[in-house]
Amino acid sequence: MGPIVEIAYDSLCKHGEELCGDWVKVVSTAEDLIVVLSDGLGSGVKANILATLSAGIACDMLQKGASIDEVVETLVETLPECQVRHLAYATFAVLRIHKAREAYLAEYDSPPLIMVRGGEVIQPPARERVVAGRTIRERHFRLELDDYLVMVSDGYVHAGAGGLYRMGWGWNNLGVAVQRWAATKGDTHQLVGALSRTCLKLSQDKLGDDSTAIAMWVRPRRKMTVLTGPPADQARDAEAVNKLMASQGVKAICGGTTSQMVSRVLNKPLRVDWQPSKKGPGRKLPPAGLLEGEKPQ
Q1: Residue 8's closest CA among 161, 266, 212?
Q2: Domain regions of the chain by residue span
Q3: pLDDT band for position 293 (50/70/90)?
Q4: Which of 117, 177, 210, 260 is the most exposed place for a label (fewest CB within 10 A)?
Q5: Which CATH superfamily is domain 4-219 in?
Q6: Phi, psi of 53, rounded to the nearest 5 degrees
Q7: What is the pLDDT of residues 175-212, one digit of tens each?
Q8: C-alpha distance across the termini of the chain, in Å
């Protein structure tokens, strides 16, 4: 089986706002991954609505087979330019990846994609063309194993402006941060968390704009088998446990009763860590158990 694209994202609200003016929509099928990031003009409720509409329209149309030209034309007709500021009501970046290999990216007034391959920050070749009066930047490129890709809204580029970085964090510094992270081979959830923390730190926890980061990593597939709930017929306990142990990859057992069943059938003591663990602020996980002789994942 070929590689997959692991993805994670996080959005941070502008200081004083309850709703984020950026919006992310992800659709994953057996063969395609579609990722849309839209940044609504301004902030707050209006920006949130505009970004949500833009991302939803783009994603739904692409999923139904529409071309990027048709998507742009529809967005232009639905969300015209602001007549006062002469700016688009929403910017967007659309990424479509086929079978974790062939990628197509269309960007409209959004920061360029950050891509790290072989320890280097690279930019796939781009071309610009005008669609419905809007200049679209397009990229066609092929992905390789261990490629890292990051899409951001401009809140990240301008984070900390006037402070440590006079003009903001900047695309190049963002690229260096992703480059260093890629060297650790860490997952996308950790990468997004690290970028979010840095963005907040640079802004002294008072973001001047909505900020969104989407991280992707082309990695090998992993297999995992989950056993949850013992059989209704206790006589089949050994059958269920044997199927679990014969499976490939990571094995996980959910539930106290199920864990005790596996412990009994395998004749291995069950050790439970009653100290609650945390994954992120305020997120507590239930106690984790480990069978003697098995390695924690």
Answers
A1: 212
A2: 4-219, 224-291
A3: low
A4: 260
A5: PPM-type phosphatase domain (3.60.40.10)
A6: -60, -45
A7: 999 999 999 999 999 999 999 999 999 999 999 999 99
A8: 22
